[in-house]
Amino acid sequence: MSSIKLIVVADTHHVTQPIIQALKNERDAGGFVFLGDHVEDGEKIKDSLRLPSYIIGGNGDWSTYYKREMVLNLGGKRILLIHGHKQGVKNGLQRLYYHALENRADAVLFGHTHIPEMKREGDLFMMNPGSPSFPRGGHTQGTYGILHIGEKITGEIKRIR
User: Fold this and answer.
1) Which candidate in 32, 33, 64, 82 could, as Cys together with 53 as Cys, close a disulfide (CB 3.0–4.6 Å)?
2) Residue 11 half-sphere exposure, CB side, CA atoms within 13 Å?
3) Confidence tier at 2 by pLDDT (50, 70, 90)
4) Residue 66 belongs to a domain with what CATH number?
5) Which residue segment(s) compose the domain that 88 sits in?
């Protein structure tokens, strides 16, 4: 079974040039996910990549008509896309975890904190790609994520040089 590779980006806040430059090296990706704050950035990145794309709005997207969450069915897996602010991810992942379980997700991708994070809780894979533009939590380089959907879901956090 071949795996699907998704580029995962969140929290660009109107700074797209560094991430667009960095993603030129991700030629083998099968799709692009943007997790909010600012959806127009997601559109700009999507246009540069020319990949199947999934864009949701975050708390910084005031008048957006974009969905606030979405479930993708890819490679036989359910991937929940959500910004995370309504689940209080700055104060822990428990509410996000239960929300993902309610959606029968195999993985949940979220943003909002600008801090890259990956963990597995039971059968649920959780990933925050951090921010390519405004890193927090002691990180000095911007980051984005790569999600690999295969027999098992795995991921990696990549730093922008």
Assistant:
1) 32
2) 25
3) confident
4) 3.60.21.10
5) 4-159
